[in-house]
Amino acid sequence: MFIEIEPQSAVPIYLQLANQIMEGVANGQLPPGSPLPSGRAFAADLSMNMHTVNKAYHYLEEKKMIEIIPKKGVFIHSNALRKATEEEKQRIEQELRPILAEAICLQLEKEEMEKMIERTIRNIQEGAK
Prior knowledge:
- This protein is mainly alpha-helical.
- The chain folds into 2 domains: 13-76, Winged helix-like DNA-binding domain superfamily/Winged helix DNA-binding domain (Arc Repressor Mutant, subunit A); 86-126.
- Helix content is 56%, strand content 8%.
- The protein is built from 5 helices and 3 strands.
- It has helices at 13-26, 39-46, 50-62, 86-105, 110-126, and strands at residues 35-36, 66-69, 73-76.
- A 3-stranded antiparallel sheet has the order 1-3-2.
- Helix 1 packs across helix 3 and helix 2 (39-46) packs across helix 3 (50-62).
- The longest helix has 20 residues, at 86-105.
- The radius of gyration is 16 Å and the shape is globular.
- It starts with 12 loop residues before the first helix and ends with a helix.
- One of its GO terms (molecular function) is DNA-binding transcription factor activity.
- Keywords: Coiled coil, DNA-binding, Transcription, Transcription regulation.
């Protein structure tokens, strides 16, 4: 899996990393049980601070996307692909609200937003950017 970090992005680096790992899970490049590099090794590979990788890993661990098993490693959680709980659905809806509010302010039509969402889902599933 190829990780591409945009240092000038407004999105924090740890979130860029976490988001790309989640996309890898979503498109099948990182199936449940797949190992990930240790924080130190991943940081060296990506030329970034180990604490940034660890922050991304803990973020993903909170979302039950990865498991950190002491003295064994980091793995895609066996239950990373699952039906969302009501709490998870509510969280995702809350996270979408400001994005959709901005789209409405920019006078994007509902049909255009739906096309954007469908295109984004397709790109994630196909592993495209």
